[in-house]
Amino acid sequence: MSDFVSDFWSIYITVIVVVGIVGLTYLLYTQSKTTVQKGEEVKITGHVWDDDLAEYNNPLPRWWMLMFYITLVFGAVYLVLYPGLGTWKGLRGWTSVGQYKEEKAQAEAKYQPLYDKFMKMDVKAVAADPEAQAMGKRLFQTYCVQCHGSDARGAKGFPNLTDNDWLYGGTPEIIKTTLNGGRHGQMPAFGAAFGEEKVKDVANYAMSLSGKKHDAERASRGKETFAAICSACHGPDGKGNQALGAPNLTDNIWLYGGTEKTIIETVTNGRNNQMPAWKDFLGDGKVHLLASYVWSLSNKAKAE
């Protein structure tokens, strides 16, 4: 409601709500006056459905009428206390944003000492603490499973966090950097520049780097193109560059899939991935716990 640029809409909504409540109250009042005297014949109102389903003029049950009155009174009181009538904020001045901030402040007051305690420990030490790991796991299940899966093994386009294959590096410091600032991975599209045949050649060369079944003749031609263009990011040996987030093409781990069709699609159209930044939303304490948990996923032995 606060986004309205004209008072008209606030008045418009208020009138509709008030008229609706008053109208329902009047309707209920008039119907409560309908009675059938003892011995009087109950008549049909004239409304009939399905040939034989008729509406009679029996009065509504008193208990039902009372509950309806209670509902209307409750609605009126609610609209006085809370927002609902246009831009009226209610006598209590409640807002969802205000409630969120209040609950957040209560949670921070309760858990901040724990966060402060773990912030004084390095990531590896936190990863070895059972309480910290339980907290980190809950954070992961709340904020990370949507992309990386409940088992942290990822999905197409979302990295597996349980192995030792890292696009930007898997040290505790780099994981914290990734969580704090996010990542934007981009693979340019080469379809227009290479043409269909050269794209297939490069795709087969990329397949050869990881020992996949490939067309040797195409791979031989693709090697030259790879050295001239692709090696700038993936390195002359195809082992990638963590400073750029360029993946290693020799380990047979593929973010989008390693079939010829998929690799051709990647080279032709490029890829564009976005990892959101969590620092402002989670804060340093939660990021520290989350980084410790993520690091432990691929370093079980070191974390124990």
Protein architecture, described:
C-type cytochrome. Part of the cbb3-type cytochrome c oxidase complex. It is found in: Cell inner membrane. Keywords: Cell inner membrane, Cell membrane, Electron transport, Heme, Hydrogen ion transport, Ion transport, Iron, Membrane, Metal-binding, Oxidoreductase, Repeat, Respiratory chain, Transmembrane, Transmembrane helix, Transport. Component of the cbb3-type cytochrome c oxidase. Its cofactor is heme c. The structure is a single chain. By secondary structure, the protein is mostly helical. It has three domains: 75 residues, no CATH class; 107 residues, Cytochrome Bc1 Complex, Chain D, domain 2 (Orthogonal Bundle), CATH 1.10.760.10; 91 residues, Cytochrome c-like domain (Cytochrome Bc1 Complex, Chain D, domain 2), CATH 1.10.760. Helices cover 57% and strands 7% of the residues. The protein contains 13 helices and four strands. The strands form two sheets. Strands 1-2 form a two-stranded antiparallel sheet. The longest helix is centred in the first third of the chain and has 26 residues. It is elongated, with a radius of gyration of 33 Å. The two termini are 53 Å apart. The mean pLDDT is 90.
CATH class of the largest domain: Mainly Alpha
User: What is the CA–CA distance across the termini?
Assistant: 53 Å
Outline the low-pLDDT stretches. Answer: none
Question: Can you name the CATH architecture of the largest domain?
Answer: Orthogonal Bundle
- The rough form would be described as elongated
In N-to-C order, the SSE pattern is HEEHHHHHHEHHHHEHH
Structural class: mainly alpha
What integer value in Å does the Rg equal?
Answer: 33 Å
Average residue pLDDT? 90
Strand content is 5-15%
Biggest sheet record: 2 strands, antiparallel
Major β-sheet strand ordering: 1-2
Keywords: Cell inner membrane, Cell membrane, Electron transport, Heme, Hydrogen ion transport, Ion transport, Iron, Membrane, Metal-binding, Oxidoreductase, Repeat, Respiratory chain, Transmembrane, Transmembrane helix, Transport
Transmembrane segments: 9-29, 63-82
Cofactor: heme c
Main location: membrane
